[in-house]
Design brief:
With 758 residues, the chain is of the alpha+beta class. The chain is built from 22 helices and 12 strands. The chain is 39% helix and 9% strand. Helix 14 packs antiparallel against helix 21.
Length: 758
């Protein structure tokens, strides 16, 4: 027992070092094996604290990874279902589209390129307003600018740009407004080619599908070329060629860097940013484009600075040019020549662009200088060569403010400019330029055709009467040959308008257009032939296939050669000593002035052996001008135009060899002197219809100096037709002809028939 007691290990609860056994072992309280419920409270607390710390750290780690895992899981699930939903939407809307095998690029709206006789552009017409230009034909700055601002990854994406789309979505969400679009150029082309501009899910899905199809079927360059030739640039311009012409007055081939930047900037909002509407906004946008091009490395810093300092120059107005009057006329003629236009075509015209500009400048200058003073606001000019080809046609002061073509559409009273047809009918009835009539007051029914200022000259030759534009003699001749003969002569020469066959037609009371009146003078210039008046020489496709070719044909003779010679001799006097002295220049020329009632219309139609040109001045509403006559503004405009048109052209004489009888050998008809007390003095001796005419002239004659006939001159600004306070021609309201005479009737017992020889 003693030995067992000696070997007992006694617990120690003191803070001292535990006692060691003989074998060197020691035991403390932690080594004791006791039931858990008997452990000390401090021990339990320590143990719990340690295990709790380890548990929290584990749970935190497990919670973070769990949340991430759950997020990944649900995102994956969402993507799966989203993909299924998108696929379903695509399938649904795709099923509503035609089969892809039937898809094709629709034809571009055909362009009609109208060019001058020497190939210069007059106008582009059609829905697009400009011809298609190849990608490598246009200025390289244009595609570079468009790609830089609209679709920087155009050459790397597959029709849809996920990066650009994501960026646009983020920008729009953060900005809480739609400020950026994610459509690529391919998507925009698909929308322009096939879809309506609706903002719907269906249209967007179809746009994507069509963009993918375009990328599959066409190269990037082909897609870009189609886009640039069809996209809208504002102000009615579709495609880069139309836009370049519209804004810069030049081809897309010649566009500069700053101009290309301006064009590219328009694509975001063509109507709002159009330089025609807001030049400042367009310029600011173009600078953003230039900066984008610099960021993309398309231009150098030097090029950027140069373009910034030299902004695009813009044409004052694309629609100002008078050549657009010609283009309008041609567009009206095309359907009759080639039917519907289904592809791009080129129309070669007879118009000389230099002459066209000369005519326009002359009309505008005279109106600018004298318009307010003389109360004249409009003018027109037509010039035709001997073959009937129209070389120039100006239909008004400014096409941009009024597209109404006064040259081919406005019917106005020609006044005395109609008298040549009266005299021609008289010559055909047997009179000659040397036939004498008594210029004195004459009364026909209730009508008295007074001369200007009431001035009369007594016995005069027909040549003098025409040069002085004596109304009484013209009326006498009309009564002698009959109004029907005058109407027939005018129609035969080229007048197409309806003419009223009454006595007042002698003074030009029936309305005509400047184009038809000018064309009716052409037979005087070419020796008696009536050509077809035409603007179009040839029509071809852009590939060169000929659709129409004017071969000229044969012009019928409408007046005998000897009559042409007499008329040219008589109308030469109008320019040399008569009412058109302001028109005279170095070439042998002839013509006739005309002024309607109260100076509502002023005309001069004249010609050389090279050109026949007619000029008209007046107001659209028919208000009178301030004493403007045919010998004033019209003769001045004619002179300016014809001098320039004949510069460097060899001089040629007018057709015909008629020479007036010297004044001392003229044997006048037995006509009594003027009796002021007599109401209507008339020739006392009948004038025979078979009065001898000059023999036909040979086909070719040498040039000869113009023959001056004895005649008293009159003021070139003198009126051809007296005013009566009545209304006259208006482009809107036709004016009834004079109420004198009527259809010609046979009056066998009429004193006028007996005395006038009719």
């Amino acid at each position: 027992m003693a030995s067992r007691r000696d070997s007992r290990i006694e617990p120690s609860f003191e803070g001292s070092r535990p006692a060691k056994s003989q074998d060197g072992f020691s035991v403390n309280e932690e080594d004791r094996v006791v039931p858990g419920n008997r452990k000390s409270s401090s021990a339990r607390k320590t143990s719990k604290a340690k295990s709790s710390s380890r548990g929290k750290r584990g749970k935190a780690r497990r919670g973070l990874f769990g949340v991430m895992a759950r997020m990944f899981y649900w995102c994956f699930v969402l993507c799966i279902w989203g993909g299924i939903a998108v696929a379903g939407i695509v399938v649904y809307y795709g099923a509503k589209m035609p089969a892809a095998t039937t898809w094709s690029i629709p034809d571009r709206a055909p362009n009609i390129k109208i060019v001058s006789v020497d190939g210069q552009l007059l106008a582009n017409r059609g829905m697009s307003g400009g011809e298609a230009v190849g990608l490598h034909e246009m200025s390289p700055y244009i595609p570079e600018a468009v790609i830089a601002i609209e679709d920087r990854r155009f050459y790397s994406h597959f029709g849809i740009d996920p990066i650009g789309l994501s960026r646009a979505m983020v920008t729009n969400v953060l900005g809480r407004r739609f400020s950026q679009g994610g459509s690529t150029l391919t998507q925009q082309l698909a929308k322009n080619l096939f879809l309506k501009p609706d903002r719907t899910l269906e249209r967007k899905v179809q746009e994507v599908l069509l963009a993918l199809w375009l990328e599959h079927k066409h190269t990037k360059d082909q897609i870009l070329e189609m886009y640039l030739n069809r996209v809208y640039f504002g102000s009615g311009a579709y495609g880069v060629e139309a836009a370049s012409r519209r804004y810069f007055g030049k081809s897309a081939r010649d566009v500069t860097l700053s101009e290309a930047a301006l064009l590219a900037g328009l694509l975001k909002a063509p109507s709002r940013l159009s330089p025609a509407r807001d030049p400042k906004a367009a310029e600011e946008r173009s600078q953003l484009v230039l900066a984008a091009m610099r960021d993309e490395g398309k231009i150098s810093a030097k090029e950027l600075a140069s373009a910034m300092s030299a902004p695009a120059t813009r044409a004052p107005s694309y629609w100002t040019g008078s050549e657009n009057y010609v283009a309008d006329t041609i567009m009206e003629e095309l359907p009759d020549l080639i039917g519907d236009v289904r592809s791009d075509i080129v129309v070669d015209t007879t118009v000389d662009l230099n002459l066209q500009k000369l005519a326009e400048q002359s009309i505008r200058r005279l109106i600018d200088e004298s318009g307010k003073k003389l109360n004249v606001s409009q003018g027109a000019l037509v010039s035709i060569d001997n073959s009937g080809a129209v070389r120039a046609m100006v239909g008004g002061y400014d096409y941009s403010t009024s597209q109404f073509d006064r040259a081919s559409e406005a019917r106005r009273q020609p006044g005395s400019a109609f008298k040549p047809f009266v005299y021609m009918a008289a010559l055909e009835a047997g009179r000659t330029p040397d036939s004498v009539r008594n210029d004195a007051p004459i009364k026909i029914g209730k009508w008295t055709p007074d001369n200007y200022g009431g001035k009369y000259f007594g016995k005069v030759t027909l040549a003098t009467a025409l040069a002085k534009s004596l109304n009484s003699v013209a009326a006498q001749l009309t009564m002698e040959v009959g109004p029907d003969a005058v109407v027939e002569a005018a129609h035969r020469m080229g007048i197409q308008s309806d003419l009223i066959a009454n006595t007042s037609i002698a003074l030009g009371t029936s309305e005509v257009t400047p184009l038809e009146l000018t064309s009716a003078y052409v037979p005087f210039a070419n020796g008696g032939y009536k050509p077809d008046i035409h603007f179009i020489r040839r029509i071809t496709t852009t590939e060169g296939k000929v659709l129409y070719d004017d071969n000229g044909g044969s012009a019928p003779r409408v007046v005998k050669q000897n009559i042409v010679g007499m008329m040219n001799s008589m109308m030469t006097g109008t320019v040399e000593i008569g009412t058109a002295k302001k028109a005279a220049f170095a070439w042998p020329s002839a013509g006739k002035t005309g002024t309607s009632q109260n100076s509502r219309d002023a005309w001069f139609v004249g010609y050389t052996a090279n050109l026949t040109t007619g000029v008209w001045f007046g107001n659209d509403d028919g208000t009178p001008m301030k004493k403007v006559t045919g010998g004033a503004l019209p003769a001045q405009a004619w002179h300016e135009f014809m001098v320039a048109a004949h510069e460097g052209v060899p001089v040629r004489p007018l057709p015909g060899t008629w020479k007036s009888t010297p004044p001392d050998t003229i044997v006048p008809d037995d006509i009594p002197s003027v009796d002021n007390n007599q109401a209507a003095p008339l020739p006392a001796v009948a004038v025979s219809r078979s009065e001898p005419a000059a023999a036909p002239a040979p086909a070719a004659v040498p040039a000869q100096a113009p023959v001056r006939r004895p005649a008293e001159t009159v003021d070139a600004d003198g009126f051809d037709m007296p005013g009566d306070g009545g209304t006259t021609a208006s482009i809107k309201h036709p004016v009834p002809p004079g109420s004198v005479g009527g259809p010609a009737k046979k009056r066998k017992t009429s004193i006028l028939d007996i005395l006038g020889g009719g």
